[in-house]
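quick one before i forget lol
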Amino acid sequence: MGSKKIIKKIFRKYGFELHSVRINRPVRLRKKILRRINNNQPALSWNELQNHALKQGKEYWASVIENISPNSWNELQILARIIAHHIHDHNIFEQLLAHHDPLLSLPRMQDNEKHFIGKGAGTGSLQVYRKVVIENAPYFEKIYRNESLGLRKNQWFYTTINPHLDSSVIQAPKLVHVCRGQKLTALYFEYIDITLPTKAEALEICANKSKYFYAMDQTVYATTPSIFYNFAISYGYSSGVAGILRMFDSDRSKFESFRLMEETVKKNKKCFCHGDLSVVNLSSQNHVIDFDESGIYPFGFDTAKVLIGYLQPKSVDEIKLYIENQFKTFVDITEWEEFLFATCLFSFVFSCKDGKHSDLKKELFEMLTVQHRKILNKRQ
């Protein structure tokens, strides 16, 4: 059962349901809010949440709330999202964290200056974020499992990469506080009010950032652990590969051909990549946030992710035109074919997350098949 169905089922069992309400803004919006079924009143307390579970005979959920086991990360995520997105109670949220990890000691915060903000994806963080005030300064709070790769990547980025970045080109928010418990770690970043770029601006910003990363001194990350070179386990890429597997389910030879292309790209020249450049992680003031998916990947990884997400090309010619306009005079001519191939392969992967066939995907795969033969012949 998916998390959405679980959440709806829990709401109904506890005597709550979601209602759609209209918000008066320049653009007409509708928002889902949680209401009690009986008296249409919002919110419920921590004790009520436990009592409702017990009264409904749901000992399982009561035990999850009371004492979450080390293996119940998914249940922790579900309950945290319920609290953050529907109940909006910071005391209950902090009690949930304390139940899961009694050794996690959060910094003292101003109670009237806590706000749940944004939504996210991925597997390593709790996917519940807060803006909090500590000692009169605003911070962005993000909670991780101690063993998560996203936490390791953040710590690696802030100790290895960030000190060498030119602030006139790219600025990452400062990592100010690290609170580590037995199971969870809370990171507190400098809170930045960023101005989100348009999609067209995002494409331009991404190209400029990618060029800057490509030109960085590679000795900066010469001793980086090998796991940070594995782009195949990044959140967006792995879901794209799963989609390719579904697409080629009736013709596994094509999936094997894709895997051979992937191995070829792994031999390309690599550089630091953000791993998840998107409008929500970029700012028109040179700020870039969220380095959970960063790593040392083949050049073209970042470009492909933004290209598919925001250029939304209809043909391979559109993809090649963008790449040529942005990078033809930048990339060394001896590396151009391999860079073009890598960027198109990553574009193919990121476009396949839905697992459905389309003319663009078919055209991309056909082009990659031809280019792959050329690159293999060149390397022989």
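fyi Residues 20-38, 67-71 have pLDDT under 50 and may be disordered.
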